[in-house]
Amino acid sequence: MSKFPVDKIRNFCIIAHIDHGKSTLADRLLEMTGAIAKTEKNKQVLDKLQVERERGITVKAQTASLFYSHDGQEYLLNLIDTPGHVDFSYEVSRSLSACQGVLLIIDANQGIQAQTVANFYLAFESQLTIIPVINKIDLKNADPERVESQIEKVFDIPREECLRISAKLGTNVEAVLQAVVERIPPPAGSISEPFKALVFDSNFDHYRGVVANIAVFGGRVKKGDKIVSAHLSKTYEVNELGLLRPEEHPTQKLFAGQVGYMIAGMKDVKEAQIGDTLYHQEQPVQALPGFKPAKAMVFAGRILEQELDNYPGGVQHAIERLTLNDSSVTVQRDSSLALGAGWRLGFLGLLHMEVFNQRLEQEYNASVIVTAPTVPYKVLLSSAKLIKSRRAVQKNVVYIDEQRVMMKYLFPLNEIVVDFYDLLKSMSSGYASFDYENAGYQAADLIKMDILLNGRPVEELTTIVHRDRAYSTGKAMCERLKESIPRQMFEIAIQAAIGSKVIARETIKAYRKNVLAKCYGGDITRKMKLLKKQAEGKKKMRRIGNVEVPKDAFISVLKRKDK
Ligand SMILES: Nc1nc2c(ncn2[C@@H]2O[C@H](COP(=O)(O)OP(=O)(O)OP(=O)(O)O)[C@@H](O)[C@H]2O)c(=O)[nH]1
User: Fold this and answer.
1) Mind listing the pLDDT tens digit for each residue in 458-509?
2) Tell me, what DSSP letter sits at residue 20?
3) Which domains does the chain have, with CATH numbers?
């Protein structure tokens, strides 16, 4: 591809609240610039992952380079479609680092929603040009006037700057392309500078190794060049590079201002850190600031099971490779006597945890068991100092218009992490939307609860709970254990205790398990089979004191309840 002057390049993201129409607009922009054919089949083409297609949501940011003629000039537009859901906001913030402007899409019926506000601030803080685009004006209940008033009031953007479109029907989408060219500034870099590129995303290809998505901030790079990654100071030869249109489109060179992909013989996922800087071997540059690591909000232990071994290299590789593509997941090795070796993974939210799990299964054929989500705590060890409990505290209220109000609260994270969003949606008949950010640690009345089997604490089941919830949580855990521990030759007491105080108890009656009881007389092979099965079952048991506990019992207590 021939050189494209920097002033004819525009890099922009599409950001919005979930379902406001980003991916549909991206389809129209791809069609109008000839990147994809205009057919029914080409729907949400940038949502490539199976999990995205099944759930109808974007979870990965995707890049597409478009060629667009305007006023007799040819422009290269690099579009990044981003996810809308709060759990994937790390994708948005990284994508913004490769852009100078954003299209902020707002549904003409729903108006400004929680993630519209959150995404606006991400773009605003990055000092990007913001083009408000009111979408779905074809809807019967569309009220673009009202949405423009909201935009003026909440974002202080004059209503004249808003575009009104229907991404579905293609109405006025041409105006969006024109606004991108006219309002968003070109990237700052120059071709005469030394080569400098930011790795803003990467994924692992089974055959070609690491494929890095890069934004070239200065200079140029070509096939065969020797480049260095600032993070590891390791040198690589560029094997392949090109544009994403949205499929890979190999080129000989990439220039300042361009966004594209690069393959440079990186075989290990540790070699292509997201946020890394690449430069020419002979022309070292100062590394770019990179990205702040994502802060995990929800933790889940994953338990290593036999069936995880069906991915070549084992589940370790599968997790490493998937976290390369989703760097917001934190991974720690973990192991316990009862559950065996596993991982403790941190996520930005519950949907994020579900999606990661689904991707492990679908893309790496690794089935895993997810334990109940927990949130991080800081524990102050003290003798008898009671800490005051804190419930949600209202911080402020803004009336967006006569129908909508924006309220800010300070919540304990574990109160909102599991079902708060679902509850809010059903209570408001789907009208309310919700977003959250980390407000730091707060003192709370939390206690450590132990589970005892015949008086012995089971380390793996110790949990931190709010004092008000201790009884119900303890009772539920005891009941679940009672269901899953088989009767044994003596009575088993299952207790939930806070310190030395027992708050819940279940009892399993004594019983001599005679697996042959039902086999009156006859068939010896059937008897042998049952005895063998019992012996195998014993291998999967863990002994706590004198009580034999099957592995499944731990899992049934720790596993998330199905919805
Ligand atoms: N009537 C109407 N529907 C639209 C329009 N644009 C998008 N939609 C519909 O709105 C729904 C959501 O559109 P998407 O493009 O998937 O929304 P999104 O913002 O990409 O969603 P996420 O990526 O999951 O955040 C789909 O059912 C679209 O068909 C429009 O202009 N008019």
Assistant:
1) 877 788 888 888 888 899 889 988 888 888 888 889 999 998 899 999 998 8
2) S
3) 6-183 (3.40.50.300), 196-280 (2.40.30.10), 298-374 (3.30.70.870), 376-442 (3.30.70.240), 447-558 (3.30.70.2570)
Per 3-state DSSP, what percentage of the chain is helix, strand, and coil (rounded to 5)? 30, 30, 40
Closest among 210, 343, 333 to 274, alpha carbons compared: 210
CB neighbour class for 183 (10 Å; exposed up to 12, middle 13-18, buried from 19)? middle
Task: Give residue 416 CA to ligand 1 midpoint distance, Å.
Answer: 27
Residue 446 per-residue DSSP state: E
Q: How many Å separate Cα 165 from the centre of its chain?
A: 29
How do beta strands 492-498 and 463-466 pair? Answer: unpaired
Closest CA to ligand 1's atom 27:
19
Binding region for GTP: 16-23, 81-85, 135-138
ipTM over 0.90: yes
**Pocket of ligand 1 contains residue 135 by CB under 6 Å:** yes
Q: Which residue intervals of 59-143 are DSSP H helices?
A: 89-96, 114-125
Q: What is the mean pLDDT of each run of 10 residues along the chain (563 residues)?
A: 77 91 91 74 65 73 87 90 78 84 96 88 92 97 94 94 96 96 92 91 82 91 92 90 88 91 83 84 83 68 50 69 79 66 76 81 72 59 37 67 73 66 66 72 81 84 82 88 84 90 89 57 64 57 71 67 45
pTM, full prediction: 0.72
Q: Which ligand 1 atom is the nearest neighbour of the CA of 24?
A: 15
The token pair that represents 528 in the structure block: 């042998």
Structure tokens at 548: 């034999």
Under a CB-based contact definition with an 8 Å cutoff, are residues 4 and 253 in contact?
A: no
The closest residue, in CA terms, to atom 23 on ligand 1 is: 58
- Does the CB atom of residue 22 touch ligand 1 within 6 A? yes
Distance, in Å, from the CA atom of 167 to the CA atom of 20, rounded to the nearest integer, reads: 10
Q: Is the peptide bond before 185 cis (omega within 30 degrees of 0)?
A: no
Copy the structure tokens of residue 364: 């790496």
Nearest to 31 by CA among 20, 42, 22, 23: 42
Cβ of residue 83 lying under 6 Å from some atom of ligand 1: yes
Question: Tokens in use for 193?
Answer: 């500078």
Give SS3 for 165. coil
Residue nearest to atom 8 of ligand 1 (CA): 21
What span, in angstroms and rounded, lies between the C-alpha atoms of 143 and 132?
A: 15
Among protein residues, the one whose CA lies closest to atom 2 of ligand 1: 136
For 477-526, give the DSSP string.
HHHHHHHHSPP-SS-EEEEEEETTEEEEEEEE------TTTT--SS-HHH
* Structure tokens that stand for 122 in this block: 């991400």
Beta bridge partners of 73: 70
Element (DSSP H or E) covering residue 556: helix 551-558
Instruction: Give yes or no for a contact between 310 and 365, defined as CB atoms under 8 angstroms apart.
Output: yes
pLDDT tens string 223-247: 999 999 888 888 999 999 999 888 8
Three-class SS state of 148: helix
CA 229 to chain centre: 26
